[in-house]
Specification:
This protein has 277 residues and is α+β, with helices and mostly antiparallel strands. It contains nine helices and eight strands.
């Protein structure tokens, strides 16, 4: 089983329990950061967000079935008060526990069912090469994303496109998609950018990322850009656990060379994953 499969099994078998991300990571045999990235790559959700949504979905079923005590349902779902449960329930489903119990149905609720792993999200990887990068500077447009909102990244590249070739200090020919500042909830900053010689004279709304000297495993992705999730998922859920390498605390990034055609999405790219030396 890969880290995501282990995490899914652990969450589903401990759904009523007060488990933490540390517990999920320990059950998966990898770090908190690794299980967060692996789970997001495989499912499009954060670990703890998935667990919360599953608990609320099961709570909704109990309420629709006529549960007499909403507080008891709230406590079973991991909430310490009726108010906290109602707030989370409304955020998840757009309605209240009382209305679901009164209606006796979950028909209009977007329930989250247990995830079954899809083997089509794995691919055959070419063996990576290993490089120690020099320190360099990246500047560009960035946004804070979650696993659930990362589908908006192509729009960020569309916004950034007109800047390419017109950025002060730009090193031409290569673009970078940099992931940094990730947290345990699966949120991260993604920067669509280029290498620059310095950070002075950049537009005020530009993100600035310093990439340190770091050892990387570098993977080629030769297919259309739309299939990049398969490569990333395979790296985090198959290659890394089997490799014996540990992830390092440094930005990971996509490198788009001159052969990449942003209009067609063809030409290939590289995925650089920081590992401990």
């Amino acid at each position: 089983m890969n880290p995501t499969e282990k995490a899914l099994w652990f969450v589903e078998s401990h759904l009523p329990d007060a488990i933490s991300l540390d517990d999920v990571a320990a059950s998966s045999g990898v770090s908190r950061f690794h299980v967060t990235r692996a789970f997001g790559a495989a499912t499009g959700r954060s670990v703890m967000g998935y667990m919360r949504a599953r608990r609320l979905s099961e709570a909704a079923r109990k309420l629709a079935g006529g549960a007499s005590d909403i507080l008891a349902v709230a406590l079973d779902a991991g909430y310490g008060s009726h108010e906290a449960f109602t707030r989370a329930f409304r955020d998840q489903f757009g309605t209240t526990p009382e209305l679901v119990r009164a209606g006796g149905s979950t028909q209009n609720l977007d329930l989250v069912e247990p995830i079954l792993m899809d083997s089509s999200l794995l691919t055959a990887l070419e063996p990576p090469r290993f490089e120690t990068s020099r320190p360099f500077l990246i500047a560009g447009l960035g946004e804070r994303y979650s696993c659930e909102t990362s589908a908006g990244i192509p729009m960020l590249w569309q916004r950034f496109g007109p800047y390419i070739g017109n950025i002060p200090g730009e090193v031409p020919g290569v673009a970078y998609g940099v992931c940094t500042n990730a947290d345990d909830a699966g949120n991260f900053d993604y920067v669509a950018g280029v290498e620059v010689s310095e950070f002075s004279d950049l537009p005020n709304d530009f993100y600035r990322v310093r990439v340190p000297a770091q050892k990387y495993a570098v993977f080629a992705h030769r297919e259309h850009i739309s299939t990049i999730r398969r490569t990333v998922n395979t790296i985090w859920n198959r290659w890394l656990p089997a490799s014996g390498h540990e992830i390092a605390d440094a930005p990971d990034f996509e490198r788009y060379g001159p052969e990449f055609d942003p209009r067609s999405g063809n030409g290939g790219l590289e995925v650089w994953v920081p590992i401990k030396g």
